[in-house]
S-acyltransferase (Oryza meridionalis), 444 residues
Amino acid sequence: MYVPPSRGGGGGAAAGGGGGEQPRVYQVWRGSNEFFLQGRFIFGPDVRSLFLTIFLILAPVLVFCIFVARHLINDFPDHWGVSVMVVVVVFTIYDLTLLLLTSGRDPGIVPRNTHPPEPESIDGGSDMGNGQTPQQLRLPRTKDVFVNGVIVKVKYCDTCMLYRPPRCSHCSICNNCVERFDHHCPWVGQCIGRRNYRFFYMFVFSTTLLCLYVFGFCWVYIVKIRDAENSTIWKAMLKTPASIVLIIYCFICVWFVGGLSVFHFYLMSTNQTTYENFRYRYDRRANPYNRGMVNNFLEIFCTAIPASKNNFRARVPVDQGLQQTRTPARGFMSPNMGKPVGDLELGRKPVSWDEPRSAADIRDLEVGLGGLLDEKEGRIAHASPDLSLPGELVEGRAGMHSRRSSWGHRSGTSESMDSIAVQMGTEANWGSISSGHGTTSSTH
């Protein structure tokens, strides 16, 4: 179970043991998720799109019930017309329930490690010969594991500090590693993974059936109007503009949700995920997870959903929080150290590990030089309190301070080094002026 350290100034209260209750896991969660009802529901950071999806389902159903189904109640014998209204209401509730089960539950988040794993094997002879200590060893970028007799490479995740299990990937939107990662769906505002893929497909398929149901009964209502008035189909359509709008709306939506249903039906029959289908192309090599069509469907719909590995409502233990704050870094190098950072799987722009480190070093150098120059100026002012500088030097000194203060806004390192040279040259000029003034005073 993932238990992150507490944020802010809660460490003192935790250490004392009497300064209030420990925060819950969802309150200090490191991912980008949104929690509701005190951690009982977990959503993605784009949870607002969920309200748009609910509106796109409820709005046409309400229009159908008011302008179409209400008029069909008395058009069928033995009160069968009532079933038209009942079925669409029940089916809509069922569809929204599947939507909530998809978007409001843990999709299969892998708990993060509090420190990088230790290397499994260390070649002591060669490493010691090169002057390296075990703390300077670099973790391998990938590891080989066997899945049904096939070698599968698993990658190291720098964010979660773990080797991802097979079929696991890190979602850049939710900032979590998700088991059997399929994709991040913006329409439900959640990752689709091992624990909610079943409900996701059932939601998409039921939405397709709902569109077909509304589409079909709108045409039934138009035909009823044509037969009742002995007119053409075009005149009957003009009598119910709401039916025309619903027919066009459902026709457009069924291409989207219907095509998605067919695509995921193919993925389930071959035991693939959307991510694997676009990245690995199992049609060009063997799929180690394919167990046959029947077994693949049984795996999706008939196996027990594993329990979540994260207890979001649990209290953060005091001892583990203190251990995380006191444990020093083990010093093992990341497999990406010195290489471009940014998982190509996530579509992020690679950034060199050395760039942020160089920027930090420049900022530290700026602070150190600024303190050194301030100390020098203080000594000069203390030794020669009546020293007056010419106007040109005063202006140059002010310009130097302005350059120093705007250091952090410059992007190139060459300009920073030029400003350092100007500062050191100006400091030397001040020293010569001070010595010259002292000589003149002694002569007089």
Summary: The longest strand covers residues 150-157. The chain is about 50% helix and 10% strand. The chain has two domains: 11-111+179-326, 354-443. Residues 354-443 form one domain.
